[in-house]
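Incident log, structure service

09:12 report received: a user says their structure output differs between two submissions of the same chain.
09:20 pulled the input from the user's history:
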Amino acid sequence: MAVLRRSGLVQVFWISLGIAGCGGTEPSSNVRVRAELVRLPGASTSAPAYAAGPGRTASLVRPWSSQLAITSLRGPVMGILLKGPGRETIEVYRCTGALADDCLVELNGPALQDLLNTDPIVVAPGTYDRVTIEYCRAELKYHAYLTGSVSIGGTTYFTRTTGNLGTAGPAEPVPMLYNGCGSEYAISTPLVVTDTASIPVVLRMYFDVRDIAYAALGDPTTTSLRVPGCSPVTTVGLAPFVCAAYPTVAAVEGTTPPQVERYRVNGGATIGLMFEAGTDRFIGGYFRKYVVEDLAWNPGFMPDAFVESLTLNADGTYTLHQVGGATFPAFRRTTHSGTATGQSGSTFAYTAERLP
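09:34 re-ran on a clean worker, output below:
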């Protein structure tokens, strides 16, 4: 017996939220939905660590690196909410902890496995086109905790609980502060609950950890990399720091993972595009900083954001929009060069290399 019918396309979008509310009505069906948070396959780094070569010396031009080997990345998930047009919000996951730190989930866990271990929840019949992930509530801010190491200038540095980097191991969890308590995502093709079923419907939220974090030593040239999500938060002094991006989610029905394409833009940004398996239908994506030791960072735009939309053009190229940022009017799904427009409206040349 059919449970869900997939209706027409929905634009993928993301909204930074405060505390999300919940509906108070009891669902009047036997349809159960299980929300799962799933990491896509692939390492957090995409290139070997720096090695000295011709023309490079121990005197670093830029003491930073995206080759941060992550052993743990924990972030809070306090609740997961389903929403639809004209419908009450339905809670399909709720952490029992009172604070964000009581609800930490290991995001660097095994790939293609549910990281939440949720129970299925009965939902009312209707259409659901959005899912919200709550990270915190009354605090209005939260911490994620990264444990890892990085080699810069031939020295290995380890994350420290004090919010810094140190040369003495082992690595400790470094707290990184974020503002806002949730993110809302479109469900790739809205779910339309039409019938009862004996098995739960699975709603999976996939995310990619490729180039999700970077580290930098204390130096005037590295201050441009400090953003929310870095530790230590203070910009006073020249302390080393670690930063991590938000784990962008693509929400889809079922257990078939999406296909992921990754691109390196001007050597300073990583773009990840996720497509429904077996099709060219775009379902989510991200922009992230990427830095290489001893090389200046100048991608031409600020890459910290989600992909707002990816639209097919008549000539086979795509118009790629970054939320609140750059627009690539003729992006190709292969290695290519072109011209894009930054947030200020100025244009810049770029080369996008498709990564393995």
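09:41 both user submissions now match this output. Likely a transient worker issue. Closing.
09:42 reviewer note: The longest strand covers residues 141-152. Residues 4-51+61-256 form one domain.
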